[in-house]
Amino acid sequence: MTPGSTNNDQEPHPAPGRWKRRGWLSRRSPLRRFGRWVIFACLVLIALFCGGFLWFANEVTSLKTPDGVKADAIVVLTGGYQRIDQAVGLLRDGAGKRLLISGAHPSATPNQIRKTTQVSTDLFSCCVDIGYDAIDTIGNANEIIRWIHDHGYRSVVVVTNNYHMPRSLHELRRRDVETDFIPYPVINSDLARKAWFADPDALRIMLGEYGKMAAAMLRDWAGMNQGSGLRTDGEDETPKAKSG
Length: 244
Prior knowledge:
Layout: H1 30-61, E1 73-77, H2 81-92, E2 99-102, H3 110-117, H4 121-127, E3 128-131, H5 137-151, E4 155-161, H6 165-175, E5 180-186, H7 189-192, H8 200-222, E6 242-243
Parallel strand pairs: 1-2, 1-4, 2-3, 4-5
Antiparallel strand pairs: 3-6
Helix pairs in contact: 1-8, 5-6, 6-8
């Protein structure tokens, strides 16, 4: 202590454990509050994603092939000949009066498709239509709805893989609330096992399809614009499905 100085001239020392951060790093700073909200929002999103995926997985794995299904017509969304085989089998059994194969590749001729499915020439010629315009699930829905309205059908059996069924029905029903769409899932053998979630390939398929389903629902909720999913974009320009 120098002469003339007093105790009041000395710098105060904070008591141990009483130091408080100030500025942007303080507990009440806007930056820290923003960080907490970001963490909270991320946790909520993760919880919603996981909960939604569990719901989706339960929906897919609980789908069963119905017995004695009957409707005005049958539609199948391409993506594998197993789907087409089962759809043709339904047509042969009288489950519907007519069949639309939606989303066929332009290079696949009706004769090639008929030979692959081994259906009789008479049945194929009279009762099978082939749609070449759809390039994705949205396009499938637009192509199918046009075909349904052209023929005046009121009930339709929908054939596609079980993991693809929820999104297919979503796209169809949002465009046509009057038609009764009856799901006929083609069961994926990998997803039929109880421990499918331990199979990387099966899990990848489910996560990918769930992501597409979630994106479709978010798109509809937000009112976002979407393409037609057709090779000839524009509803009035959509070509008719070709008869076999």
